[in-house]
């Protein structure tokens, strides 16, 4: 009667795939870094500074006209786009983006803070049906100083999150596990940033929030697998590490699928029904859950094999363990899928 | 693990009921909330500006040119000292002016520069004693053209370290003179102020109110007067100020000495003049009343100018002596601009220029749309997750979903009880928690499945499942909690709301999964006594 998504007693030999998986991850990593350097990121105003104004789409005026009205204001780079607003029966909106204003220090701040007034005054004059009280949906301006600080704060937050995870994992596990877990975190963060660069999604403060959440989720997933690896190593002292990892991964596979499944369902609900404001965040999280689940298996666990964990005995088995030193993970990997 | 004595059950029920009571006000209208009995909590969640609409302004104080009221006192003390004949070098002719955060004394008797320097230093020493931490509170410098400058050091500025606090008080008086709105004004860091105005989706009026320094003074008008012509004896010194009222390039020549300043104005409010036009009425304090009466008695039929931030706003005739200490400023005002001017005058002078370095405003339309979008996304997310869990685990899924419902009630209760602010990303945090909260249940259920397959009896499998899942559950949730804490440190406004719901969600998820689900499961097993767990 129950829906068995994952059959009992799976014996998938994940670790057989570790070499191609690690190569693929390496390619994705290099590609992401290259993308960030060549295509850069589409920074939102949080990090780039500037102004965003969203208004209800006026009935009698098209985007082209708005563009020409604003073009006359001499505000530098102006982008005008149409979008569908937030909500189930979303009305059409017009989003106006204006770049950072020139000038030095406080002059630039001052010029930036006058942009929204200039734009709204010009729109009111040019569009008869535009009523500021009703049609202005949002207006945001971030000055050059604050945008620089926000970017710095965001990067520091990523740094601290990664560092604290590293501290926690080495505190709870052996350092061998820590290496794998943290490598997986960097892998997830860098590839997610790479995706933002590839698709030119707006990269802003909520993206950083999403990245931190991905770090939390990916670590959560990795810890569940590692807990199981540690437990199975105590149970099967003579089995080669590769086999033990496969047993642990199969033991947690059903949980992995179910939890990422429910989390993805919740995120899809946000993506489709949570409106435009949350779309960037939810798309980052959806991607992050997928990559985080993948990396727990094929990065974090796979790297355990290369950190010398097989030569090392977990703490409480030190004296009585009878692990055969000849059990080399590499060699024994072959017949694992019995 | 599987025992639930009465006291444990009681604690579980108390927690759930308390959470439900805290969450309840969110479902009620304001009037229904007011009618709740006294013991019930009445506070609903605060909605963030992104949900209810409103403006957020981050204001930076440009303190390179901070106007310190102590410098004004220093100026007059220097003036008083330098005209004394008994001092070193006798009477020294000079002009004193305040330039930014310094006082400049132009010494007109060039041969007495040295004497002037030491007397200015003595006066400044008297006014600004060295700070206890060492160093000097000010420096005295010689500038070209026989100018002596007294400039406060950063230590001296810090002694009057209420720049931010006094600015906040002026901002509050200007933006919210009646004290009726929900505007929140808080300091941030060294020299920044956060202003949040719920419901005000156009920050322009607030910005206009704050863009003026509000330096008010009253002067005699020299231009066009027979009597008021500068001579050596009467001490009148002409200065030309813009007078926009009479034309874009209009100017007016007035006396540099002021009759009184904004500090002498006790009250200012919007009123109407005899022609029924909007005007600003003001009341003076004792000192101002005396000075004003004295001047207006002496100069009937002359004019005086009311000067705000270096521009004349009005220059009325003195028709008769004004001895009551009240007056009126007329001009081409609307009711709104007169109200704003009254607020600016009454609030007093801003000691530093304000620069708006970040501003975000959300209109009521987008806020309402966001609430409905967030609600729909939550409901749909919850239904999907519930269906998935029940399909995967049957009756156990029902238990997990029940405890998920309790979880949501507890999150809402905690948010209301803590007075936290719900933002749109915060709603996303709740939905994400819905998805992740079942994780702990899943971990346990999977263990129970395994133990049962390994041949354990139902009760023993359940016992073992909970035991072995516990450390994993704690480990896994600590990592998410770390991420939430870092987020909280990083965030402002919306992002902080996300961090708060995520963190609260972690605690309530662990509680509901590990305690509530377990209690439900155990109670069901004692009642149904299944031979095999349907899992």
Task: Describe this protein's structure.
Chain A has 338 residues and is an alpha+beta fold. Chain A is built from eleven helices and six strands. In chain A, strand 3 (78-84) and strand 4 form a beta hairpin. Chain B is of the alpha+beta class and 535 residues long. Helix content of chain B is 49%, strand content 19%. Chain B has helices at residues 6-23, 30-34, 49-52, 69-82, 113-127, 154-159, 163-175, 204-210, 286-298, 335-347, 364-393, 395-417, 424-453, 458-490, 493-528, and strands spanning 46-47, 54-62, 94-99, 102-107, 138-143, 147-152, 184-188, 192-198, 216-220, 238-242, 251-255, 260-261, 265-272, 278-284, 304-308, 311-314, 326-329, 353-362, 421-422. In chain B, strand 5 (138-143) and strand 6 (147-152) form a beta hairpin. In chain B, helix 11 packs antiparallel against helix 12 and helix 11 packs parallel to helix 13 (424-453). Chain B is elongated. The chains are: A alpha+beta (338), B alpha+beta (535). At the A-B interface, helix 4, helix 5, strand 5, helix 6 and helix 8 of A face strand 2, strand 18, helix 11, helix 13 and helix 14 of B. Strand 5 of chain A pairs antiparallel with strand 18 (353-362) of chain B.
Total count of strands of chain A: 6
Query: Based on DSSP secondary structure assignment, what is the total number of beta strands of chain B?
Result: 19
CA(first)-CA(last) distance of chain B: 19 Å
Distance from N terminus to C terminus of chain A (CA atoms, Å) equals: 29 Å
Largest sheet of chain B: 4 strands, antiparallel
- Integer-rounded radius of gyration of chain A: 26 Å
Assign the structural class of chain B, choosing from mainly alpha, mainly beta, alpha/beta, alpha+beta, or little secondary structure.
Answer: alpha+beta
Shape of chain B: elongated
Strand order of the largest sheet of chain B: 7-8-2-18
Overall average pLDDT of chain A: 84
- Oligomeric state of this protein: heterodimer
Binned strand content of chain B? 15-25%
Helix content of chain A: 55-70%
Shape of chain A: elongated
Radius of gyration of chain B: 35 Å
Hey, which two chains have the biggest interface? A-B, 85 and 80 residues
Low-confidence segments of chain B: none
Average residue pLDDT of chain B: 85
Beta fraction of chain A:
5-15%
Give the helix proportion of chain B (percent range): 40-55%
């Amino acid at each position: 009667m129950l829906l068995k998504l994952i059959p009992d007693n799976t014996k998938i030999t994940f670790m057989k795939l570790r070499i191609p998986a690690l190569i693929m991850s390496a390619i994705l990593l290099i590609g992401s870094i290259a993308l960030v350097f060549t295509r850069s990121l589409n920074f939102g105003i949080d990090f780039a500074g500037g102004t965003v104004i969203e208004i209800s789409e006026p009935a009698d005026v098209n985007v082209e006209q708005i563009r020409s009205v604003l073009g006359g204001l001499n505000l530098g780079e102006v982008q005008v786009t149409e979008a569908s607003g937030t909500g189930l029966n979303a009305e059409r909106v017009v989003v106006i983006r204006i770049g950072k204003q020139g000038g030095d220090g406080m002059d630039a701040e001052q010029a930036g803070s006058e942009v929204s007034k200039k734009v709204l005054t010009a729109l009111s004059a040019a569009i008869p049906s535009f009523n500021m009280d009703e049609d202005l949906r949002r207006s945001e301006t971030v000055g050059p100083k604050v945008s620089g600080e926000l970017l710095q704060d965001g990067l520091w937050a990523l740094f601290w999150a990664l560092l604290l995870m590293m501290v926690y994992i080495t505190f709870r596990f052996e350092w061998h596990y820590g290496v794998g877990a943290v490598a997986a975190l960097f892998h997830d963060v860098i590839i997610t940033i790479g995706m933002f660069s590839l698709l030119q999604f707006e990269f802003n403060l909520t993206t950083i929030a999403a990245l931190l959440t991905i770090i939390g989720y990916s670590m959560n997933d990795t810890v569940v697998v590692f807990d199981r690896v540690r437990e199975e190593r105590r149970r099967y002292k003579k089995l080669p590490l590769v086999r033990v990892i496969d047993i642990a991964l199969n033991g947690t596979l059903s949980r992995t699928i179910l939890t990422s499944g429910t989390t993805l369902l919740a995120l899809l609900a946000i993506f489709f029904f949570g409106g435009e404001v949350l779309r960037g965040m939810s798309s980052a999280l959806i991607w992050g859950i997928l990559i985080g689940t993948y990396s727990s298996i094929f990065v974090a666990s796979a790297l355990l094999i290369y950190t010398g964990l097989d030569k090392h005995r977990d703490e409480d088995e030190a004296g009585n363990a009878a692990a055969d030193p000849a059990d080399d993970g590499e060699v024994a990997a072959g017949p694992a899928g019995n | 693990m599987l025992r639930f004595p009465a006291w444990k059950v009681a604690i579980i029920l108390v927690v759930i009921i308390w959470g439900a009571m805290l969450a309840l006000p969110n479902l009620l209208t304001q009037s229904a909330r007011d009618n709740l009995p006294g013991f019930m909590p009445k506070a609903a969640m605060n909605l963030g500006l992104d949900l209810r609409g409103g403006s957020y302004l981050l204001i930076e104080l440009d303190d390179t040119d901070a106007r310190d009221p102590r410098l004004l006192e220093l100026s007059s003390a220097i003036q008083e000292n330098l005209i004394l004949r008994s001092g070193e070098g006798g009477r020294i002719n000079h002009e004193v002016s305040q330039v930014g955060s310094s006082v400049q004394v132009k010494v007109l008797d060039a041969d007495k520069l040295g004497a002037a320097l030491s007397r200015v230093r003595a006066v400044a020493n008297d006014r600004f004693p060295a700070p206890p931490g060492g160093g000097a509170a000010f420096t005295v410098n010689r500038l070209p053209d026989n100018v002596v400058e007294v400039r406060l050091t950063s230590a001296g500025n810090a002694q009057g370290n209420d720049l931010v606090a006094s600015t906040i008080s002026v901002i509050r008086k200007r933006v919210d003179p009646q004290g009726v709105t929900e505007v929140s004004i808080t300091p941030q860091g060294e020299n920044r102020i956060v202003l949040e105005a719920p419901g005000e989706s156009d920050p322009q009026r607030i910005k206009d109110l704050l863009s003026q320094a509000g330096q008010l003074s009253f002067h005699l008008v020299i231009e066009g007067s027979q009597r008021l012509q500068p001579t050596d004896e009467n001490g009148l010194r002409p200065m030309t100020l813009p007078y926009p009222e009479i034309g874009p390039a209009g100017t007016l020549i007035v006396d540099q000495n002021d009759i009184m300043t904004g500090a002498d104005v006790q009250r200012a409010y919007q009123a109407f003049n005899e022609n029924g036009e909007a005007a600003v009425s003001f009341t003076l304090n004792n000192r101002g009343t005396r000075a004003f009466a004295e001047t207006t008695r002496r100069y009937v039929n002359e004019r005086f100018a009311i000067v705000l931030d270096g521009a004349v706003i009005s220059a009325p005739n003195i028709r008769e002596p004004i001895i009551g200490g009240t007056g009126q400023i007329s001009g081409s005002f609307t009711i709104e601009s007169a109200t704003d001017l009254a607020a600016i005058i009454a609030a007093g002078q801003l000691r530093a220029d304000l620069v708006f370095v970040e501003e975000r405003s959300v209109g009521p339309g987008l806020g309402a749309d966001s609430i409905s979008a967030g609600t729909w996304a939550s409901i749909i997310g919850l239904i999907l997750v519930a269906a998935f869990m029940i399909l995967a685990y049957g009756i156990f899924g029902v238990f997990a979903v029940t405890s998920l419902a309790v979880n949501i009630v507890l999150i809402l209760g905690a948010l209301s009880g803590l007075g936290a602010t719900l933002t749109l990303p915060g709603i996303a945090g709740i939905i994400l928690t819905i998805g992740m909260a079942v994780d702990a249940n899943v971990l346990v259920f999977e263990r129970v499945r395994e133990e049962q397959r390994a041949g354990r009896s139902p009760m023993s499998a359940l016992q073992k499942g909970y035991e072995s899942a516990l450390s994993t559950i704690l480990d896994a949730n600590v990592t998410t909690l770390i991420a939430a804490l870092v987020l909280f440190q990083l965030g402002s406004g919306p992002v902080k709301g996300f961090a708060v719901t995520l963190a609260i969600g972690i605690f309530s998820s662990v509680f509901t999964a590990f305690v509530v689900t377990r209690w439900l499961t155990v109670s069901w097993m004692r009642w149904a006594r299944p031979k095999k767990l349907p899992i």
